[in-house]
Amino acid sequence: MTATPGLGLPRLASPDLLRSVFRRHAAGVAVITASGAAGPVGFTATSLSSVSAEPPMLSFGIGAAASSWPAVSRAEHVGVHILGEHQQELAATFARSGADRFGAPTAWREGPHGVPVLDDVLAWLVCRVVARVPAGDHRIVLAEVVLGDPAGAGRPLLYHQGRFTALRD
């Protein structure tokens, strides 16, 4: 392999290479929730994508070893919450392994289809799961939007260079 002018020496594909590249990719921050047999579950996701407008559909990735996966793997509906820049601690709580994600100070309620809906987010959706696709050590969940609310106030929370951050004007 030869170096590209202005760039470093290319590296062979590896988990570290992928992580290093995606640390440079700014992503919006969402929390995905579901109702599980032992109570509500949820996790922070930066892999949320719009898939289709007709019908309205989205996707997100979840690790097959994640504590939330057993509930998400059986859930008929999930909640998708777009976090605001004021919610860095909430994003960190839902990203932290072993955290009491739905205990105080997390404010939430049971929403449509029994889905946990977080308070004070920029926007939320309740979606019907239509497919779960194996993808390496993750699963890609495809979900059709059932209903939601886009009316929250504020600016979006971003994830970049391994930390939560805000937009700059």
From TrEMBL:
GO terms for molecular function: FMN binding; riboflavin reductase (NADPH) activity. It comes from the Bacteria. GO terms for biological process: pyrimidine nucleobase catabolic process. SUPFAM superfamilies: FMN-binding split barrel. The keyword Oxidoreductase applies. Keywords: Oxidoreductase. Residues 22-166 form the Flavin reductase like domain. Pfam families: Flavin_Reduct (PF01613). This is Flavin-dependent reductase. It comes from Streptomyces humidus. The lineage of its organism: Bacteria, Bacillati, Actinomycetota, Actinomycetes, Kitasatosporales.
